[in-house]
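Worked Example 4.2. Consider the chain below.
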Amino acid sequence: MKKIIIVILISFFLNSSKAQDTLTMRNGENIPVKVIEVGTLEVKYKKLDNLNGPTFSVLKSNLSKIIYENGTKEDYGQFIDNEFAHGQKDASEYYHGYKTAGNSTLVATAIPYAGAMIGFAYLKICYATVPNDENLGYPDYNLMKNPEYARGYIQKAQKIKKQKVLNNFLLGLVLNFGLSTAFFMDNK
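Applying the procedure from the previous section yields the following structure tokens:
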């Protein structure tokens, strides 16, 4: 009878610990779970205390690593840093969607007399907005599914756009001054 109770206790212990995977968050918190699915952007899991309950998910960008029940690990710390840098590098090469914003700012600012105010309005609007998705020009849609790559790409694209718009605003001011001076001299 003692042997049966010991076997039951051991099998109960093994079954309850068998399903334990651990999610390590970027803030250092360890969460014991049962990983259901590792997707492109997120990890789906169930809480150990309610394996028949709802499925939860966490973005990969919030994870440092996953330690599976068999001891294998997936490390996301290095991956995230590399993907962010990869996104920034690609934006430097592929992003050219700033042309409309830059050219609009240049033309508006170059209008004699009132152009500086109109150009300044364009400058403020362009500085406040993120480039439109259709203007990003990223090399592969699947890369943009990675949140860190997308964050790096968009951040760099926005910086490029701001610099181009500012350069065109300043060039427009020079043209505005030249055209205003020329019109003033002609009207004398």
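The longest helix spans residues 147-186. Residues 2-75 form a domain with the SH3 type barrels. fold (CATH 2.30.30.100). Compare this with Example 4.1 before moving on.
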